[in-house]
Amino acid sequence: MSDATPDAPQLYLMTPAGAQASTLGPQLAAVMDAFPVACLRIRAGAEEDELGRLADLAREIAHARDVAVVIDDHVALAQRHGLDGVHLTDGAKAVRYARKELGADAIVGCFCGNSRHEGMNAGEAGADYVSFGPVGQSALYRGEPVELELFQWWSEMIEVPVVAEGAITRELLEQLSPVSDFIAVGPEIWSAGDPVAALTALWG
């Protein structure tokens, strides 16, 4: 994952939580053919066997398009299925462990809620990116929405790339674009009948 130029965040795509590999494949391929994606993240929520099938499917589709793939928290699954790294959902505490297990070339990302302190800890521990969220009102996340000023401060003070996630709207996207390296999109499009059309309306 490379840092984005100012005002032009890259698309960070998340699979639906608990997705089934059999139904996700065509939708995932369609979205990734329609939009350039910087990274694909496999959300947890399925049984391990199904996550393994998802990992193989996602890797095949994403790597054919030169897109990196990370998976929520499962260091062992990332290793077993040839993924590019992990996205840690519980703050900075597992960053060093994941780096040790996966090696220097792996992607280790870290979700830090709305905590600047947790984000700085993750960066110091060697995370390749941190994500903050939710940026909008969302029942899928614990905690209050992140203030825009956190992204503003981070973009000015910290070199570690930052991802904005959680209840992204067109209005929020416009506000976050100048101060975010990546915008994570997932639930916003998968609940729609046509995810490509939903992403087109959101991303433009």
Report on the architecture of this protein.
- The protein has 204 residues and is of the alpha/beta class.
- It is built from nine helices and eight strands.
- Strands 1-2-3-4-5-6-7-8 form an eight-stranded parallel barrel, surrounded by four helices.
Helix content: 40-55%
Give the H and E element order: EHEHEHEHEHEHEHEHH
> What is the mean predicted local confidence, pLDDT?
94
Which residues sit in consecutive blocks of at least 5 with pLDDT less than 50?
none
Structural class label: alpha/beta
Largest sheet: 8 strands, parallel, barrel
**Helical region count?**
9
What is the C-alpha radius of gyration, as a whole number of Å?
Answer: 16 Å
Strand tally = 8
Notable features of this structure?
single chain, 204 residues, alpha/beta, eight-stranded parallel β-barrel, 8 strands, globular, thiamine biosynthesis, Thiamine phosphate synthase
SSE map:
Layout: E1 10-14, H1 21-34, E2 37-42, H2 48-63, E3 68-72, H3 75-80, E4 85-88, H4 95-102, E5 107-111, H5 116-125, E6 129-132, H6 148-157, E7 162-164, H7 170-176, E8 182-185, H8 187-190, H9 195-203
Parallel strand pairs: 1-2, 1-8, 2-3, 3-4, 4-5, 5-6, 6-7, 7-8
Helix pairs in contact: 1-2
InterPro entries: Aldolase_TIM (IPR013785), ThiamineP_synth_sf (IPR036206), ThiamineP_synth_TenI (IPR022998)
Keywords: Thiamine biosynthesis
Pathway: Cofactor biosynthesis; thiamine diphosphate biosynthesis
